[in-house]
Amino acid sequence: MKKKVLILGASNAQIDAIEYCKSHGFEVCGCSYTTADNGIPLLDHFGQVDIKDVDGVVALAKKFGVDAIYSVGSDIAIPTVMEASEILGLPHFISSETAKICHSKHLMRSALGQDFVGNAAFVVCGTLEEALTFEDFPAMMKPVDSQGQRGCFRVDSKEDIEKNFATSLGYSVEGKVIIETFVDGPEISVNAYMQDGELRFAVVSDRIVFDEYPGGIIKEHLIPSTFADEKAKEEAIDLVKRMAEKLHIDNGPCYYQIKLDPENHPIILEVTPRLDGCHMWNLIKHYCGADLLDACFVHLLDNKPVLTQPAVFPKTEYKLAFTCKETGASFDRSEYDCTGAEYIFWYYQTGDRVRKVNGFMEKGGYLIRKTGRIIE
User: How would you label 175-189 residue by residue, b for 16+ Cβ within 10 Å and e otherwise?
Assistant: First the structure.
């Protein structure tokens, strides 16, 4: 009998999971609050259910008789995935409590504690008056529960807080904003995988953002990292291990966004217990052969050991670059140089109008290529 999987969301971020499941002979069900997602035509079954609606997802999972519920690339979906799976007794990687802590920036920082090495100083605000008590500038102000850099602002003064607070707060479902010390250094990522409390895989990469826009809007990822020296890489992996233990992330993938401070020590920005939303699993597979997407479903559905062989990290640099375009503009594939790309995926057809996600520069697709650089 075919295995049935319910994927929460059917947008571009979920197409990787949908296509993987289809290629492995699974019956793929999906849901979304909208009927316009690009992944919907790929599904065997679809229900128009908001991925935040736990009761609705539980009902849909019962209707389809699924063997597992999962999602990739979506912070919003993960708490629902875990809670619905707990209710139905389906396999899942972490507790719904851990998922909620990781989803809320203020809960994550509070769970780690102010004395946790690698945590930033922070304050959580529900009102402008509370926000204006913050003194440690420069800082970043962001909603505690949004994703995709929505509502994120660098603030260098109380005047900046006053100017941007209402906009930032407007993106928070909980009605809270976190202001945290700004780390003036390069940004790295760690894609990691845990099984039974053991770190099975971790690789450090460089995260390149648009400097001209607020909130760290992603432009490209480079692997292996050149921002982090060997000592910084070791400290970053140690931070991953300590956070996984502290937050009870014992199984499954986890994505860490980290800044390096002026002394090259890692400071955590965000952690999310899922595959990232930038298709990094695909870049990593091209770079070193490790397949984190496959590991997720083998681990989840079959409970087999995954990523059992130590990874060998080549010195040849690989890049994942997004084909980005301004919000509201007409997309044109011919504008992008795809020469030498080993993989290309488009979110838009030429002539499509670019939809608003962050309101500045949106992803129109991505490509993976070998850059030719050797990183010693």
Answer: ebbbbbbbbebbbbb
- Taking Cα atoms as reference points, which of 128, 133, 169, 168 lies closest to residue 152? 168
Residue 231: partners with Cβ closer than 8 Å, 6 or more residues away: 264
Q: pTM for the complete prediction?
A: 0.91
What mean pLDDT do residues 140-166 have?
88
Count CA atoms within 13 Å of residue 168 on its CB side: 28
Task: Please state which of the ranges 143-152, 185-194, 263-272, 338-347 shows the lowest mean pLDDT.
Answer: 143-152
Q: What is the DSSP string of 232-261?
A: HHHHHHHHHHHHHHHHT--SEEEEEEEEE-
Residue 281 has pLDDT above 80, yes or no: yes
CB atoms within 10 A of CB 308: 8
At residue 60, φ and ψ (nearest 5 deg) are -65, -40
**Tokens standing for 355?**
């939809």
Residue 93 CA to residue 209 CA, distance in Å, equals 30
Q: In what order do the strands lie in the sheet with 27-31?
A: 45-47, 27-31, 4-8, 68-70
Is the separation of the CB atoms in 201 and 192 below 8 Å?
yes
Predicted confidence at residue 177, as pLDDT, reads 94
**Contact indicator for 141, 153 with CB cutoff of 8 Å:** yes
Does residue 141 contact residue 168 with C-beta atoms inside 8 Å? yes
Per DSSP, which regions of the chain are E strands?
A: 4-8, 27-31, 45-47, 68-70, 122-125, 139-143, 153-155, 177-181, 187-195, 198-209, 218-223, 252-260, 266-272, 316-326, 341-346, 361-374
- CA-based diameter of the chain, in Å? 62
| Ordered DSSP codes for 53-101 | -HHHHHHHHHHHT-SEEE-SS-TTHHHHHHHHHHHHT---SS-HHHHHH
Q: Could you tell me if 130 and 105 are in contact, meaning their C-beta atoms sit under 8 angstroms apart?
A: no
Pairing of strands 177-181, 218-223: unpaired
Q: Which of 200, 196, 180 is CA-nearest to residue 259?
A: 180
